[in-house]
Amino acid sequence: MSGENYNTCCSGDKQESTKDKYSMGEGQFVTFPLYTPYKEDTPVKDEKEEIFNYYQDFIIDFLETPSGKVPVVDTEIHFEDKIGSWKVRWGIGRFNYRVRPGLYAVGRPNENSLIYVTANYKMSFDRLRKSLSGLNGWIMVLDTDGINVWCAAGKGTFGTDELIRRIELTGIKKIVSHRLLILPQLSAPGVSAHEVFVKTGFKVIYGPVKAEDIKRFLDNGMKATEDMRTVNFDFLDRVVLIPMELVQSIKYILIFIIIMLILHLGDVIKFRFSYIYPFIGAVTTGSVITPALLPWIPGKAFSFKGWVMGLLWAIFVIYKQGIFDMEKLSVTLAVILFLPALSSFLAFNFTGASTYTSLSGVKKEMKIAVPLMITSALTGMVVGITGHFLKF
Amino acid sequence: MKNYYLKNVVTLQFDEKRCMGCGMCVTVCPRGVFQMNGKKAMLVDRDACMECGACEKNCPFSAISVNAGVGCAYAVIKGALTGNEPNCCCSSSGEGKNTCC
After folding, report:
1. Smallest Cβ distance to A230: which of B32, B71, B88?
2. Torsion over CA of B55, B57, B63 and B64, rounded to 10 degrees?
3. B13-69 CATH pick, 3.40.50.1010, 3.40.1280.10, 3.30.70.20, 3.40.50.300
């Protein structure tokens, strides 16, 4: 919040006033080029340079350092950045939303300024540069294949080896006199702090989970308080993930529309919305409603939560369609067997997007729930289709 | 609000005898599983563990072990079908389903 009040332009006077607040001490050697073209190569050339279209529009200046020119980044998030974030939330080009790995400068950093390490997923990088507005510091971007900090750490691309490699490639040792690196806390599954220290002499300090907390973290003497360290999965955290879930569920909806069209091939003219809305509802229940209401739905297992919600939906469908009579027994049975199983499966898939499920837990859930889902869904389909043709 | 997943399933093991009390596990755990108890760390909320492996990786004394991995259904199902270890599905090639990031 406070960061937004700062003047983010690198030549502003306000920058001057906060200059050494978060530095390691006094001293200056940095010289400024009077004017440098808008785009220029970073000192470190990347081998993937030719393959990827990096998003680099945030570079506003260049800084001379003993290890070459370092791009200075804008700490303001512009409309295009917001559009970019929105697009990847909906799954558009999310594996190509990359920043070029290497070293960047925020404000007017000097040899005492702190180094913040992040992933080369542009959304991670944007959050960091925005949070550093008004400060002077270095940003070291690791090559994580355009994947966010948490996932990259889990895969090991945001890891000890890449960090050590990047320390060498950027020549950071010649640029700063201290030996401290601030890493996002969620990179810890990939980085072994003691190993980095032994191999490079840099001491790794794990900062807060969220970049927004960096100033509080610094003000607290570079110690993350418990709330900065803990990952929550609140309503809003879950809601931002829903578009992605929805996009991935659309294919299921399309499959059901096709199946229903085939079943009603004889009378396409009579084909009504009421044939397909039960499926659309069940998919939405599993991939949107269940994730949004997650902690308030009974049970611990995601598949169970999804099944409960799917059952409620199935009951609603039966009530609404007025099919709770013996003449349409097959339809009623199909609805009650198939729809909750579908919601259950989609809810189970949300374990991947959640931030508190464990591998062992998911394995256990899979062994128990997946066979039940498949049995239930298949029985429902068989009953529904035979009933459709045999008219029971 | 702290969310909890299934009980008594995680593979997290803590060997108190090896612990030298550096406190790294307390710092790196995003789920508040460890706390300092005098000069040693202590497991205080084992069921909150999501097996990310941060503590094991950052324990200089190898006092912690955990079978780290992704708690992602898609990855686990795919792993079971292909016979591989579950791997995070968010691959740079953009193949498959990618809910886990």
Report:
1. B32
2. 50
3. 3.30.70.20
